[in-house]
UniProtKB/TrEMBL annotation:
The keyword Cytoplasm applies. Residues 2-418 form the Rab3-GAP regulatory subunit N-terminal domain. Keywords: Cytoplasm, GTPase activation. One of its GO terms (molecular function) is GTPase activator activity. This is RAB3 GTPase activating protein subunit 2 (non-catalytic). The keyword Repressor does not apply. Residues 845-865 are annotated as: Disordered. GO terms for cellular component: cytoplasm. It is found in: Cytoplasm.
Length: 1257
């Protein structure tokens, strides 16, 4: 190991070990040992041969981490470059994986030492920022490379190598680096160097140097020049100081220019190759590799001065982080400290042969809150020199500059001290803001154990004895923190801290997770006794009070823990005041059982969050606070009372201990109720025990001093019991709140009776007032329990809606008179319950209907039956708040609100309209319809109308989504719902005058509701509508719906005449002939679309048509109704529908529609033509013409034959109709046409021809 060349990255994540021509790269990895403890190890990631020239070997190595350029970086390196110097003079750059990035021959001589300088944040405003630099020392030359250009070149090379590897091509040889090269003169031999950086002399030093160098008559420049300082060690002189004036030597770029010129020259002769060397010939590559590059000559640089010592030979130099000091080792076993500013030796240590040096710069540790934020003081830094003496096996730390030895460690004799002296390359003043550079300064590698240790020195060791008291305390505080993280904590640790840090140390100790209670108690007591022994004027009052209060709380924790762990527990006696409790509870027993089943479903939880996990003393102290003689408890109720509620702890002893500790009864009551409500599941599982224990606890707390005041006025409500009611009113845990209210009601009754007996009089008024409050509260909690049980029912799989809602008395009262109906309507939406199903359940309120008949209606699904029973129970508990009209109104509003959130779900709006239909009161129905239309519908409706008017047809999906906010299918459903909504609006407006407005009321116990008005109240406050205007909108909505359903080309607004006028509140149309034709053609096209749509569905006459969609059976009646509104003759539409049905081959449905036609003669003439087209197709145009058909055609009368040939069967959509249907149609024609009709004889000839064809078939 001593013969190897080692280098450790400043980030301690890469170690390079090289020997001769081989090298090993070791990277940091986290590994887990057998005990589960993670530790960082250095594992081999690459090993191999680095030498490429014959006979060369590695002479120097450094690892340079390169900073990341990403904005999210916080100071970690992006990657690490390994720079290797060889005896041949080559300097090569590698990645962490051993991939060669760059190689350059700078001097045909051995590379003695590689060193790097990176950016450091200036500690003072006057300090010059030093540029980054890589320096390479040869026996007769010093080469420096600018860090910024090197950083960019290395990044570019790494990216190029990655691209070449991904593409599978050869790596491109990059152009060489730009550098400065100095020939250091007037020194016999140089073995090491340090590049101090750029410095500027003061005016006095400039004049002094000018007079020494130039004599008495030397001229002095006005501005001192900036110079780069280099310090070398070796022999003759022992130490040399060189100064290179900035700008005196330009970077050597001739080789770069030659390389570029050769690339361009070759590009002229070979078009396939670029100037960067793509597609080069292999022979050319080999020739270039064999030919060594040209080495530029060095610029002479004379020595300014040195430390002459003819017998002493320097071995190494180590520059301090502040660039003002340097440590030098020599062959005499001395370590010399140099002041680089003055150029003198200021200190020397002897007895350190083969010493290795390193520097530590430690910032001052300060407590921020002790300094005013307005005073910005820079941090102080302490500088230490680390010396490793391998001959003695000792590592020493010395304070600078004339400080003592502050530390000495016995280590092995074969270790290596690794000191980089630089950080990350590529950092500047802008990118370093907010970064935390994770770098180690000095590390010691022990090859015998393979351990890599870091050297850390506290700042206070650099201070004098008078100033180091506080710094020592801070360091001791740090040690205590480290000690608390370990598991081996002794009671005597951590009590020797002075001043205000004692407060922090005690707080840290009391918050330590693994510290036992005995340790906390002993340390706190020891510190308290120490404070008592000090003079009163020197004692910190806050610290003394903290010790006293924490000792009191720790004693309380120990006492309560002992009571909970006692083997014998005090069983609660059966109290007479709980008699009859089971009977009172039986009213809601089934609901409690359902509630417990719904809340006991398994859920994900963490073990450390379980309330059953033991509470540590540290957690107890964080949940409780002691102020003077009183104790304020925040959330330690589970630790204090759960053992009592389970019957495992003596209740009276626990209450006595808490009372002696100084905790007020009101706080204890609040903690008891919070535990009871939070652990609702466990309470319901063992309610028989927990209820009695709660009763005993309430009585015990009521008997405490200060619970119920003696001066309480019996005419008013007791604040003690009102606290319980307030908690039950606000909680969402309905079951636990109901049990607590029932138990507290009994306890209050017993307590008031006892007080009355003690006063020898009965306070009847007080008793009645207090108990009346409890009766109302219990009734409200019973209602809330039933409602909450319903809301907890999970929705069916795939249903929409969020998590189950939680309700309480407070929430329902603040929700107003419609809060209950609103909660149930949200539950209906979550359950995806159809309106018919809701109507079926709501109307089952009577006891007769809720028996066997209801069970038969519910079917065999137990979940469906359970939902129905719960909803029925809720409706029975709230007969006024959940009346059918109110429930349907809120459900309708909830569905339209959900539709507005997701317009693609047309089913929501459709079900909202269906719920609206179920409302029996026309006043509520009218108001809800008006609010729905004006709030959610009218804007989208008008947008849809203008969109269809603009495009002149049913718009495509893209346009619908862009303008209306929904797809074409959803828009069709939306328009259909608009038609139904407007129809409901018209019907409700017509029925309003016949029925009086309903009176809305709520249950007696819920009269105190104070919140927003319900939907029904808002509906009753709506103004009336103008019926003709609503009818006008109904007509427009129907036309839009028809056009979208059957994809008709129409401009809907152009179907209305602008001359429509209102007379006596009735629309009177004055349509012109053009508008009449538009109405007629539009309705005819709609009927044609319906006939074509039902052709596939109605394959057989007995097939029923669906109730919704374009194939619904109500479309013809709608078109006829629209025809009446538009003053179109309905008989024309009926005849057109019959003809279209025959045209489609739907003869059976056509015969049904034929009965409603009035003008049979015109229909007969139309059907005669259609029959002729059918017969023409069979005789003349059919592909399967028979001989008999041709003979029949020849026997036909000439008039009929000519008429048939004039027919055009291509107008038939279904020409292939059985002859039996055509024969039946001709028979119908004979019946419809009178004998004196002009075409009656033609019909007889057709009948004869069809009969002949039927007979021959």
């Amino acid at each position: 190991m001593q013969e190897c060349v080692l280098s450790l990255s400043p980030c301690s994540d890469l170690l390079v070990v090289a020997h001769k021509h081989k090298a090993v790269f070791l990277s940091a990895k986290w590994l887990t040992d057998g005990s589960g403890k993670e530790e960082m190890t250095l594992a081999t990631t690459w090993s191999g041969t680095l030498s490429t020239e014959e006979g060369e070997s590695v002479s120097s190595v450094i690892c340079v981490p390169l900073a990341s350029q990403k904005r999210s970086s916080t100071g970690r390196p992006d990657w690490t470059c390994v720079v290797v110097g060889f005896t041949s003079g080559y300097v090569r750059f590698y990645t962490e994986n051993g991939v060669l990035l760059l190689a350059q021959l700078l001097q045909e001589d051995k590379v003695l030492r590689l060193k790097c300088r990176t950016y450091e944040i200036p500690r003072h405003p006057g300090v010059t920022e030093q540029p980054e630099e890589l320096s390479i020392l040869y026996p007769a030359a010093l080469v420096t490379i600018d860090g910024f250009s090197l950083f960019q070149s290395l990044r570019a090379c790494r990216n190029q190598v990655a691209r070449a590897a991904a593409a599978g091509s050869d790596v491109i040889q990059p152009p060489p680096l730009a550098y400065k090269k100095w020939a250091l003169q007037e020194m016999d031999s140089i073995v090491d160097h340090s590049s101090v950086g750029i410095m500027t002399l003061c005016v006095f030093d400039q004049m002094k140097n000018a007079s020494i160098l130039g004599g008495f008559h030397a001229s002095v420049k006005g501005n001192p020049p900036a110079m780069s300082q280099y310090v070398t060690v070796g022999a003759g002189p022992y130490t040399g100081f060189y100064y290179a004036v900035e700008g005196s030597s330009q970077p050597l770029l001739s080789h770069v220019a030659m390389a570029v010129a050769s690339k361009l020259t070759s590009a002229l002769f070979n078009a396939a190759s670029g100037w960067l060397g793509w597609n080069k010939n292999k022979n050319e590559d080999e020739a270039v590799q064999k030919q060594k590059p040209k080495v530029e000559p060095a610029t002479p640089l004379g020595i300014r001065f040195g430390l002459p010592d003819s017998r002493r030979h320097g071995e190494s130099i180590c520059l301090s982080p502040c660039n003002t000091l340097a440590g030098v080792t020599d062959d005499f076993g001395r370590v010399t400290l140099l002041d680089l500013v003055r150029g003198i030796a200021i200190r020397m240590w002897k007895g350190y042969r083969d010493a290795q040096l390193g520097w530590l710069q430690v910032p001052e540790e300060r407590v921020d809150r002790e300094f005013s934020p307005s005073v910005a003081r820079p941090k102080r830094h302490a500088l230490f020199l680390v010396i490793y003496a391998p001959r003695r096996g000792i590592l020493e730390v010395w304070a600078m500059q004339q400080g003592p030895r502050v530390g000495a460690f016995t280590v092995g004799k074969h270790c290596r001290l690794l000191y980089a002296g630089y950080r990350l390359m590529g950092v500047n003043s802008v990118t370093s803001q907010g970064w935390q550079l994770h770098t180690q300064q000095v590390c010691l590698l022990d090859p015998t154990t393979g351990a890599l240790r870091t050297v850390n020195v506290p700042f206070h060791l650099a201070l004098s004895d008078k100033k180091s008291e506080r710094a020592k305390d801070m360091h001791l505080m740090k040690k205590i923190t480290t000690l608390l993280r370990s598991r081996d904590i002794k009671p005597e640790d951590g009590i020797h801290i002075k001043y205000c840090l004692s407060f922090q140390a005690l707080e840290s100790l009391l918050s330590a997770k693994d510290a036992p209670v005995s340790c906390l108690t002993n340390v706190t007591r020891a510190l308290s006794e120490t404070l008592k022994q000090q003079p009163p004027e020197e004692v910190d009052g806050a610290l003394h009070q903290l010790c006293s209060s924490q000792l009191k709380l720790l004693q309380l924790y120990v006492d309560i823990q002992e009571l909970h762990s006692a083997e014998e527990s005090q069983a609660s006696s059966v109290n007479d005041s709980l008699e009859g409790f089971e009977e009172e509870l039986s009213r809601v027993a089934s609901t409690l059982q359902s509630y417990a089943q719904l809340t006991s479903k398994p859920s994900v939880s963490f073990a450390q969050d379980s309330p059953d996990s033991p509470l540590s003393a540290q957690a107890f102290l964080s949940q409780i606070e002691c102020t003077g003689f009183y104790i304020c408890v925040y959330s330690a109720g589970n630790f204090l009372f759960w053992g009592c509620l389970c019957g495992k702890s003596p209740i009276h002893k626990v209450c006595g201990t808490l009372q002696q500790a100084g905790i007020s009864p009101q706080q204890l009551l609040s903690l008891l109720l919070s535990v009871w409500l939070q652990r609702e599941k466990e309470v319901l599982q063992n309610s028989a025990v927990t209820v009695r224990q709660l009763h005993t606890l309430l009585l015990s707390l009521s008997d405490m001093k200060g619970a119920i005041e003696d001066s309480w006025d019996p005419q008013s409500v007791s604040p003690w019991w009102q606290q319980v009611r307030s908690t039950c009113i606000q909680t969402n845990n309905a079951a636990a709140a109901l049990l607590a209210a029932l138990v507290t009601h009994r306890a209050a009754k017993a307590s008031i009776a006892a007080r009355a007996d003690s006063k020898l009089q009965s306070e009847w008024e007080a008793v009645s007032l207090e108990l009346e409050q409890w009766v109302v509260c219990v009734r409200q909690l019973e209602d809330v329990l039933v409602l909450q049980t319903l809301l907890l029912v999970p929705p069916p799989q795939g249903a929409a809606g969020g998590a189950a809602a939680h309700c309480s008395i407070k929430v329902l009262l603040e929700g107003g008179t419609g809060g209950i109906a609103d909660s149930v309507s949200k539950w209906v939406f979550r359950q995806n319950m159809a309106p018919e199903k809701l109507r079926e359940i709501v109307l089952k309120r009577n006891a007769d209907d809720s028996g066997e008949e209801a069970e038969q209606k519910a079917g065999g699904d137990p979940e469906e039956k359970g939902r129905s029973q719960l909803l029925t129970a809720v409706c029975l508990r709230f007969p006024q708040s959940l009346s059918p009209d109110l429930l349907f109104a809120h459900s309708s509003w909830e569905y339209v609100v959900q539709w507005n959130k997701d317009p693609e779900e047309g089913r929501y709006l459709s079900w909202a309209v269906e719920h609206l239909k179920l409302i029996s009161s026309p006043h509520i129905q009218l108001g809800i319809s008006t609010m729905m239309w004006s709030t959610f519908i009218v804007k989208r409706f008008s947008t849809a109308a203008f969109l269809m008017e603009k495009v002149g047809k049913a718009p495509k999906d893209r346009l619908c989504r862009r303008d209306v906010g929904m797809g074409d299918k959803a828009m069709t459903s939306f328009l259909g719902s608009c038609v139904q909504l407007l129809q409901i609006l018209m019907e409700a407006d017509s029925a309003v005058e016949e029925v009086s407005a309903p009176e809305l009321s709520v249950e007696e116990v819920w009269c105190g509701a104070d919140g927003p008005a319900s939907i029904a109240e808002l509906a009753l406050d709506q103004r009336g509508v103008h019926f003709p205007l609503v009818q006008h909108h109904f007509l427009l909505a129907s036309l839009l719906h028809v056009a979208m359903t059957f994809s008709l080309r129409v401009k809907p607004l152009s179907l209305f005449d602008s001359k429509v006028r209102i007379q006596d509140h009735v629309f009177v149309f004055s349509p012109e002939f053009v508008l009449m034709r538009r109405y007629l053609f539009f309705l005819m096209r709609a009927l044609v679309g319906w006939v074509q749509a039902i052709d596939d569905v109605a394959s057989t006459p007995s097939t029923p048509l669906p109730a919704t969609g374009p194939t619904a059976d109500w479309w013809p009646s709608l078109c006829l109704e629209l025809g009446v509104l538009l003053q179109v003759n309905p008989d024309i539409l009926q005849r057109h529908l019959v003809c279209e049905l025959y045209n489609q081959g739907l003869d059976v449905r056509a015969e049904e529609m034929m009965l409603e036609v009035e003008d049979k003669d015109v229909l007969g003439s139309q059907l005669l033509v259609l029959t002729g087209q059918r017969l023409c197709y069979s005789l003349l145009h059919s592909q399967s013409q028979t001989q008999a058909a041709m003979e029949l055609l020849a026997r036909l009368p000439p008039t009929l034959c000519t008429w048939l040939k004039a027919m055009d069967p291509s107008e038939l959509r279904c020409p292939m109709v059985p002859l039996a249907q055509t024969s039946r149609l001709v028979g119908r024609l004979i019946e419809m046409l009178p004998e004196n009709h002009a075409q009656y004889s033609l019909a007889l000839h057709l009948l004869e021809a069809v009969d002949v064809l039927t007979t021959e078939d």
